[in-house]
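TL;DR need structure tokens for one chain.
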Amino acid sequence: MFVAMLQRSPAEAEGVRQEEQRDLLAFLAPMALIAVAGLIVIQLAAQSRPDSLLLKVAPVLWVLGILAVGTASSTLMRRLGAQIQEATSDQLTLSAEQGWIKVLLQDTSSFAFVLNRAGDTVYASPSTTDMFGASPDFTSIVCSPSRSDLQSLLAGVTRQAIRPGPHEMLLDSPSGRRELEVHIRPVRDIDFDGFVITGEDVTETRLLEARLESTGQHDQLTGLLSREAMITKISGSLRGLRTPNNLGLALIDINDFGAWNDSLGRQAGDEILQVVAEKLELMPRTATAVGRYAGDSFGFIIEGDNVIQSMETCLDQLSERLQGVILSNGSEVDLRFRAGYAVTDGTTVRSSAEELVERADIALRRSRHSRQSTRVAYRPGMNEDLIRRLTAERTVHDALARDRLRVYYQPIVSLVDGHVSRVEALVRIHTANGVVLGPEEFLEAAEHSRRRQAVDRRVREIAAGDWQAIAEATHEDLRINVNVTEADLNADLVDEMTPLVAGHLTIEVVESAVLSNPEQAHHVLAAIRRAGATVAIDDFGTGYSSMSHIAGLPCDILKIDRSFVNAMLHERKSMALVQAMIQLAHDLGLQAVAEGVENTEQEATLRALGCEAAQGFHYSRPVPLDQLLVWLFEREERGASRSR
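>> reply
TL;DR here they are.
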């Protein structure tokens, strides 16, 4: 009865210290009363009957009585406490169903736990039970923080020593661990003394943030570092660089990746990129980072001594590993690449990662345009070359857009009787300020910017339109020579030639364009000849043709490159080569035409060697149509005068 009297009712409200004092008093008071009563009984028995049996067993009974009362008091306190907690839980449940808690928590998507002062869960919102199961115990499902840290957190929030939130917590659920951002609010009123813990599930948000961070740092297809991550890595390495020339960056492009991707399919193209990434990750330890820059472009960083030697070693190993790659569809591919690299110097160390990347990129671009070098190291001055090329690219673009392409013609003269057998159509650009640019100033840029075909197509259109005027200016069977590139050797070229005056056209193509795809080139050139045009192999002697290739080509003319003609009068080997090329042309039933003839002596030598025709400054520079017509008329007049 005494213990029950000391227990508070659910309607009472008191502080934590008051509650602790009351509980201690409820536990100790009955035991103290029994102890005092026992001592009094023992004292009275000792005075009245010192030798009685009761006096001997009284201490034992006294101790047992104290223990019994203590046990009963403790049991009664636990029972009363459980009844109070049950009453509180029932009251909260009733409030959740009917009162203010329902209004606050029933429809919220947030997780909500209500804990009593001891940390026991007395209520969980519907969204909480949906996620963590029926009747979840908050303290038992918390993985982080630990139980002791959680109790410290609750106590700290109660004392207002720790802010209510948000606090990061990790909770176990049947579907896996969930990350929550929670707020802890102490509650103390007439109905309840404890905590309300509300939280938002941020698991998916955290996963998305991690994926976004990973995406920003790594390429999704290959797993390599992204371009931004590589720049960050270079920046960190530059900050720790104590001496120059100890850091290098290489950039590589996979050759003909577009062709592999188109012929084998997108999936195979992705697999090729993944294979390249795997081979890059097998590089020596001197390669401290590898990444994918964009498309089929990759990069790697070299650190340490002898950076250039290490760079070349890594590129050699990569080249070997990319040979004979077997794809999942059974295809075997030999992958090749072009590379450009830059090594730090005193200037780079004091500047930035972006400058090193820019230098490596400049070297890679130079490699793309080099016929000999597939690897190019950056050197000072390359940037100026790049600026010139970019300027030329813009010039080509403007010329196509504003119709500033012009065709100049250079006569090809017979060395047998002096008549003009052909004229070669050569492209020029007239700039806005009246400057005339020759092909050496912009054709390479047109090739790089993929506008070369458009330029050549426009030249052929202009030449076709000029042919009638040229034909009327001479009574001779004159042809116009037009140049085509490797990219032009397809069925479209045949269709383009058909409506033109094919019988008065000669198609000039260089050896390398023919030999890159001999079967297709043979088919296209044969179709062009059937349409009535003739075919000339341009710049003969500068390529790598074998006699069997030349013998099998459907062609009519071999044009001997100007470099041999210019050197033949003072170099015995060049003279022998010119003579051999003329003889080869005759043996194959072809006509020999010499380019770059600049004087009478060269003309006489070529005539003596049996060369049929020549062109060069000795006869005329390339000139516009109106000047060509005047030149043809005057030459015909001179020929008529000599005949009279």
